[in-house]
Write a structure and sequence with these properties.
about 250 residues, alpha+beta, Lipocalin, 2 domains, 8-stranded antiparallel β-sheet, 16 strands
């Protein structure tokens, strides 16, 4: 056994990799992959473009045809219909492998091992990623998805403070329980909210895959994700953040 470990370490050193580090990291990576490997749905923010894919716990073999060094990090095989998914999710055509990341996140990588998107774990079997200059995407594990773990419309009814900076509310928004569509409710922002919403003035709201979606008459949307403090924060945050917190009674 010791001779086998020594041989592996020697090979890693010849490849220019820190043997102790790789030997220490491979087992946790494999264990994390075993826990996350499953069938998922990759969707856009609106949920109307869906790509089924399967994350495998089988380490991906390095392609010797690539003119790049073998990546130090362990990556794993992934299977999906690249043609069908490419028509739905444009960046999916570049997906070649996946890897477990910090905090139970899921990383999708290119053929060369470059990171395409990192999905952080949310609630109810949902993982969420923001691709700069592209948009918000979700990975949904239908097998463990738990609607009860997600926010419910009844939790939103009432008055909320809207702010650009946490702790400094600028106006108030009333989340009505009056339905305006099969899956939406009326939204009543104060007149002062014009300064924060700008030309976008939402008139209805809904809960969608654990996120809060505000929608204008034009169909334009703002998406908010739950925050650790119990409120909601706009995603992507960019340089014009927005926060919703329950108004004090």
């Amino acid at each position: 056994m010791r001779s086998t470990i020594a041989l592996v370490a020697a090979i890693l050193l010849l490849l220019g990799l820190p043997a102790a580090l790789v030997l220490a990291q491979d087992k946790p990576a494999n264990e994390a992959a075993q826990a996350l490997a499953d069938t998922y749905q990759l969707t856009n923010a609106d949920g109307d473009h869906v790509c089924p894919l399967t994350l495998l716990a089988q380490p991906r073999k390095h392609d010797p045809a690539l003119k790049t060094a073998e990546p130090a990090a362990v990556t794993f095989d992934i299977t999906f219909d690249k043609t069908a998914c490419g028509a739905m999710i444009l960046f999916s055509v570049d997906i070649a492998s996946w890897s477990p990341g910090p905090g139970n996140s899921i990383q999708l990588n290119t053929h060369e091992g470059k990171l395409l998107a990192e999905f952080t774990e949310g609630v109810g079997g949902n993982w969420e990623a923001l691709r700069e200059g592209d948009g918000v995407y979700f990975l949904v594990n239908q097998r463990i998805a738990d609607p009860a773990a997600q926010a419910q419309p009844s939790e939103m009814f009432g008055v909320w403070d809207l702010a650009r900076t946490l702790g400094r509310p600028a106006c108030r928004v009333r989340f009505s329980d009056a339905p305006v569509k099969p899956d939406s409710f009326r939204l009543d922002p104060d007149a002062g909210c014009n300064l924060l919403f700008g030309r976008f003035m939402p008139e209805r709201w809904r809960i969608e895959r654990g996120d809060l979606v505000l929608e204008a008459a034009s169909g334009a949307k703002l998406r908010f994700a739950p925050s650790e403090e119990g409120g909601w924060g706009k995603v992507p945050e960019d340089n014009r953040p927005l926060y919703l917190t329950r108004a004090a009674q």
